[in-house]
């Protein structure tokens, strides 16, 4: 297969649902492949890791985005996260990231463990109310848990939490490689609503601080506005919210779909014979909720895996492919929670390494064994349907019954 056919395939509906065969076609051409004059694609684990750890491969910040997409600034759906750490390079990135990490600390996350366990139990109680009927696991559990957790951490009041799943779904379409006009309109609207929401919440916390992340970030920003402007504050709050649940919801969905297809693994997890952390790492490797990210050469003279990457050449890092690199993982297409092969690239690496990795792991390791113990007969209740997204990989629906098998586990 030639490169153009592979790339078109990945952008099409079938490739977005099932990218793995196309990744292998690409890998057959080498771990780093030049797609055209402006772009290389990386499927190799070592090469992708090297790019992530090399600051001279930067993210496409607003200034670069404006250069390549002249109407970039007209779309809040694109610019909102452009002011966050996700889309800034040094020195802005380090300035903002050190501020955010100073309030989003490992201690604060670890202290959440009892609250996460309580949230899991409460959601399982609610799930039990569905009785024998089929229920969509994503609606009823997978998204509700991380939305509740990140909102609790940020200090978003309970009555507002239902607003965010549709807004995040609309906004994150701008992370995809191809965005249709109607999707961009919806993303712009979502960005407007999210920044207005956080502007109002920040104002309320400024007047009446509480023990939450919004209050802590507002206080830090107010103490030294040079270190965090108002726009940056809102952008980073929106990022924390969206990144905090969109990916984790998909992790839980992808994990359950795999457990339904691997009943022996599910049984071991339920019985305490499999370390939940190992299971979660293998789900992250095998079916990563983030499948790709990109970088751009910020200086001359860079190379990846020996291939020259001239200034302003884009680098697409296919995380989902790197996680199945046979040079790194033996028999990579086999789901095997016992492989203990080190952490996959699903949380990125280098300066932009995911700030929420610890939190996502905490939620998934608390939720999955508890779910299987509470509902030992949990089974698929019809085909699981993928969302047609390449970057953020997850299911649209994942119907299950809590009390016993109605259908063969399958996906389409
Ligand atoms: C399974 C769940 C998650 C996955 C797979 C994931 C994945 C990622 C990846 C791949 C990146 C790096 C992007 C890049 O380098 O271009 C990233 C960055 C980030 N993630 Fe996560 N994430 C998850 C959960 C979370 C959670 C729960 C939070 C917040 C509470 C979060 C907050 C962030 C933030 C703030 C960044 C930007 C860091 C920076 O640019 O310096 N993520 N995440």
From TrEMBL:
Gene3D superfamilies: Cytochrome P450. SUPFAM superfamilies: Cytochrome P450. InterPro entries: Cyt_P450, Cyt_P450_B, Cyt_P450_CS, Cyt_P450_sf. The keyword NAD does not apply. The keyword Heme applies. It holds the Pfam family p450. Keywords: Heme, Iron, Metal-binding, Monooxygenase, Oxidoreductase. GO terms for molecular function: heme binding; iron ion binding; monooxygenase activity; oxidoreductase activity, acting on paired donors, with incorporation or reduction of molecular oxygen. CDD domains: CYP164-like. Belongs to the cytochrome P450 family. This is Cytochrome P450. It comes from Kitasatospora griseola.
């Amino acid at each position: 297969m030639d490169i153009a056919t592979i790339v078109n395939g990945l952008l099409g509906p079938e490739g977005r649902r099932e990218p793995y065969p196309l990744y292998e076609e690409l890998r057959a051409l080498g771990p780093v492949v030049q797609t055209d004059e402006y772009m290389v694609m990386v499927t190799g684990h070592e090469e992708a890791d090297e790019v992530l750890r090399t600051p001279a491969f930067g993210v496409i910040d607003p200034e670069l985005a404006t250069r390549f997409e002249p109407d970039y600034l007209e779309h809040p759906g694109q610019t909102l996260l452009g002011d966050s750490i996700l889309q800034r390079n040094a020195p802005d990135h380090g300035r903002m990231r050190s501020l955010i990490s100073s309030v989003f600390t490992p201690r604060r996350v670890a202290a959440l463990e009892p609250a996460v366990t309580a949230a899991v139990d409460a959601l399982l109680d609610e799930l039990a109310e569905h009785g024998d009927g089929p229920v969509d696991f994503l609606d009823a559990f997978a998204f509700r848990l991380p939305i509740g957790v990140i909102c609790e951490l940020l200090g978003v009041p309970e009555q507002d939490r239902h607003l965010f799943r549709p807004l995040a779904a609309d906004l994150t379409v701008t992370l995809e490689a191809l965005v249709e006009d109607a999707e961009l309109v919806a993303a712009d609207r979502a960005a407007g609503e999210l920044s207005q929401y956080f502007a109002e919440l920040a104002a309320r916390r400024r007047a009446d601080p509480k023990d939450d992340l919004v209050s802590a970030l507002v206080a830090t920003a107010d103490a030294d506005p040079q270190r965090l402007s108002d726009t940056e504050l809102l952008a980073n709050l929106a990022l924390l919210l969206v990144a905090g649940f969109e990916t984790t919801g998909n992790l839980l969905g992808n994990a359950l779909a795999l457990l339904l297809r691997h009943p022996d693994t599910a049984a071991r997890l339920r019985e305490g014979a499999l370390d939940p952390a190992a299971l979660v790492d293998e789900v992250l490797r095998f079916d990563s909720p983030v499948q790709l990210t990109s970088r751009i050469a910020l200086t001359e003279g860079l190379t990846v895996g020996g291939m020259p990457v001239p200034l302003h050449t884009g680098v697409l890092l296919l995380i989902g492919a790197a996680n199945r690199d046979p040079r790194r993982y033996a028999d990579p297409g086999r789901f095997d929670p016992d492989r203990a092969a080190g952490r996959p690239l699903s949380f990125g690496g280098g300066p932009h390494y995911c700030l929420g990795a610890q939190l996502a792991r905490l939620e998934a390791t608390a939720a999955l064994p508890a779910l299987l113990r509470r509902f030992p007969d949990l089974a698929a209740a019809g085909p699981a349907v993928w969302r047609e997204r390449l970057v953020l990989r997850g299911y649209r629906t994942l119907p299950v019954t809590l009390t016993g098998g109605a259908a063969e586990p399958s996906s389409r």
